[in-house]
Structure formats: C-alpha cells, structure tokens
Specification:
By secondary structure, the chain is an all-alpha fold. It contains 18 helices and two strands. It has one domain.
Length: 462
C-alpha cells in the first residue's frame, strides 16, 4: 500500500507540473502547441485557439456539473428559479460531503484525486492475491487511463468509486455493517445505482437457475440489495422534502434535450469524448456483452447442476472476486443497453459511465488473472476482433472527421494500455518500464489537456 501511495503522489505531482508548465507561452508553443489547439469560450461560441493553458482561479473552478454540485452543497435542492430545478438530476451525497469539508478552493481537485487513488489502493489490495511488480504496473496504468481526468474534477465519480470499494472491503472482511454502509453511500452518490441493482439481481438469478434453492436465492438478494434500495429511498425522501414531488429526479431530466431514434446519425458532444467512447464500446462493453451471453448460456450445461451454493457474505475471496467480476460485466452491459435504447445515437459520456466507475476497475484488476490461462493466439484473436470492429465503426461513422488528429489521443492511449495489460506477460521488465514512462508522460499530458478544456469553459468533453 505504501508503494502505491507513493506512486499516486508522484503521478499527481507530475500532472501538476505538466499543467503549470503548459501555462507558459514558450513552453506551450514549442511542445503541445505544435500538434494541437486549446479551446476558448468566446461569448458562448466555442473556438479553437493557439494559446497556453488557463490559470486556475475561483472564477473558473466550477463548470457544468460542478456548478450544480456546488449549488446543492450550498443551498440544497431549494427551488429558487427554473435553473435550480436541474439540481434534482444529481444525487446528494457528494455535494453534502463537499459542504461539510468546507473546501471552496482548488483543494477540491486534490481531494477528489486522492479519494480516487485511495479507492484504487483499497480495491487492488482486496482483489489482488500478490503484490508483484506486474500488479504495481496494473495499478499505475489504472491511474493513468485517459478517463481518469474525470476524477480530478469536482464531480461525484471519485466518491462513487470509493463508496463501492468500501462495500467490497466489507465483503472481504465479512463485516456486513461495512458492506451496508458502503453500499448505502454508493446508492446516494449517482443514479447509476439503479442499473447496478439490476446487475445484482440478474447475477443471483443466473445462479438460482443452477442451484434452484429459492429461499437461499431470496435471502441473498435481499441482503445484497437492501442497502442500495435504502439509499435510493433516502435520496427520494430528501428530494421530496425540497420539491414535494416523489418524481423530482425524473422531472429534472426534462431540462436536458432528449433524443430518440435508433437510425439517427451517430454524434457526440466532443471529438475527445467520442474517441474514448469508441474504445469503451469495442474494447470494454462489447466484450462484456459477449462474455455475459456465454456466461448466461452455461446455465443449461449439465455439469452446472451440482454447483456448490455459496453465500457472498460467507464465501472465500475467490468466490467474492468471481461474483464481483460477473456483476461488473452485467453493469457494463446494462449501461450499453440503456445508451442504445435512450440516447438516440448521441454517445456523449458513454466512456464516463462505463470507465469512470468502480465496476470498470474491478474488471481491470481482475482481467490479468482471468486471461492468464488463455494462449497467445486466443488473446491475439480477441484483440484483432476488437480492433477490426472499432476500425469498421470509425470508417462508417461520419462524425469526428480525421481520425489521426490530436483529439483522438485518448482513444489511442486507451488502446495501448489495453494491449499492455493483455500482453504484459510476454514483455521483459525493461520494456515494461520504458513503455510505462512513455505512457506516464503521454497520459498526464492528455489529462492536462482535458482539464484545461474544463477550466476554459469549452464544450463539455464528458
């Protein structure tokens, strides 16, 4: 844990150094300025300009969702004007804890980052069997991934990840009260808890179809979803107290433009977000969909009839890890299905909803051992299929234009990290170190670029 903590501080320090360095005109124009432009909000019009990064000031700290979280923290859900009604689309735990912290400065960025890395340290300790160099490499890659920039912002993602990790620590230590507390906090942080509840129930239903023990199934489902349901009810009660409406959350969703139609043109709110979403669709969500279909079909195999019935609250670590992996896969598929059915092909934020969440890091940390028994040929075929699907998709979709522009760097870095994790056992230690250094500098520069978009009030990349 100490080594991971030191690595986290080191990465954050380099990230800060890169951002402040690129505020200087000479450094910017001779480095990043040669291959990219930044964004500027010119009276509501977003334009690209060749200018250094913005300075972080109180006037530009809270943009987009952060403004609403800050307002909820300061004033709750009080109805004062039409704009305030949008608050009900956001769950209250993060803004309330933000209010309690008393932070009203750039320290909120630092706090969110360290909530995130603390969560990853605890998660890696809970699910990893050994602290080998390869596990440290995986941890470092986890805090370098392009979507990690979301966990620097005053958004709820860091707390969302940490709260579920606390629940997982409760499972591993066999302390139901800790599981309950973490799950309750998780369900009061983001509305995605609804999809997570469905993932839990579907996972238990799959095992029920094998063991056919109804009362065991009922007990397990109740124990698992009870804290999540309790948190959901608490949020509803809090919002009802301010709005006198039991459906305040759903009413608030009308303030965002909705799309419909499965045959609309595929678009996004930004090319930066679109590139990372392409990775999330074809290297994460689609493999999860295939895995879930195969996993579900095994119910009908005869050798599954005598499966041992194990409670999640008394099972060993291997069983807990298996269960968490399955739930995480179904949660990812649930987000894919929800986006497919409701987005009208506007893909904004899909990578955020599938990669800036605790289930993604569960999959990431468990993936090396899950594919450890696969041959080089099997891994290569899987990677080639993912690449081919992404290439075909990009060839058929008009949005985004030139695929080799800098705005797609998040997609390319994500693919490289994916390849690193899949094929790391075939690399020598020196090769891994060199690649990690290159990825460190590239990913943190990408983080700084997106963070500057946030500070500049450019169009939202999430």
């Amino acid at each position: 844990m100490l080594i991971k903590g030191i690595l986290s501080v080191f990465v954050f320090s380099i990230s800060v150094f890169i951002y402040f360095s690129l505020q200087h005109p000479v450094i910017y124009t001779t480095s990043l300025g040669r291959i990219s432009s930044n964004y500027c909000n010119n009276k509501g019009e977003i334009v690209q300009v060749k200018k250094p990064y913005e300075k972080i000031e109180y006037s530009n700290m809270y943009r987009w969702d952060a403004q609403l979280y800050k307002t909820i923290g300061d004033d709750g859900y009080a109805r004062e004007n039409v704009q305030i009604n949008e608050r009900f689309a956001f769950y209250p735990l993060f803004p309330f804890l933000w209010k309690i912290s008393g932070i009203d400065s750039p320290l909120i960025f630092i706090l969110n980052y360290f909530l995130f890395v603390i969560a990853l340290i605890l998660l890696s300790e809970a699910v990893k069997e050994k602290n080998t160099p390869d596990n440290l490499f995986t941890f470092l890659l986890a805090i370098l991934l392009p979507p990690v920039v979301i966990c620097y912002l005053p958004y709820a993602e860091s707390l969302f990840i940490l709260s579920l990790v606390i629940a997982i620590c409760g499972l591993v230590s066999r302390k139901y009260w800790l599981f309950f507390a973490g799950a309750l906090a998780f369900s009061m942080t983001r509305p995605a808890v609804v999809i997570f509840i469905f993932a839990l129930v579907l996972t238990d239903l799959r095992y029920f179809l094998i063991h056919r023990k109804f009362y065991f199934f009922l007990r397990e489902v109740i124990l698992k979803i009870l804290p999540f349901i309790a948190g959901f009810i608490l949020v509803t009660l809090i919002q009802y107290g301010y709005s006198s409406s039991w459906t305040a959350y759903f009413e608030a969703l009308t303030f965002w433009p909705s799309e419909s139609g499965l045959f609309n043109k595929i678009t996004d709110w930004s090319i930066e977000g679109f590139g990372m979403t392409v990775f999330a669709i074809f290297f994460l969500a689609t493999p999860c969909l295939i895995y879930s279909v195969v996993w579900g079909s095994k119910v009908f195999r005869k050798d599954q009839e005598n499966i041992k019935v194990i409670s999640l609250f008394s099972g060993d670590r291997m069983w807990i890890k298996q269960y968490l992996f399955d739930v995480s896969v179904l949660f990812t598929v649930g987000n894919l299905a929800y986006t497919f059915l409701t987005s009208g092909n506007v893909l904004n934020g899909f990578y955020r909803y599938t990669m800036s969440v605790p289930t993604f890091y569960i999959i990431l940390f468990l993936l090396p051992e899950r594919i450890g028994t696969k041959t080089l040929l099997q891994k290569s075929v899987a990677v080639i299929l993912c690449l081919a699907a992404a290439i075909i998709f990009l060839a058929k979709v008009a949005y985004g234009d030139d695929r080799f522009r800098f705005q797609y760097m998040g997609m390319y870095l994500s693919i490289i990290i994916f390849l690193f994790i899949v094929f790391e056992h075939y690399m020598s230690f020196p090769v891994k170190v060199v690649l990690l250094i290159l990825l460190l500098l590239s990913c943190l520069t990408w983080h700084s670029y997106l963070f500057n978009m946030y500070i500049s009030d450019a169009w939202l990349f999430t």
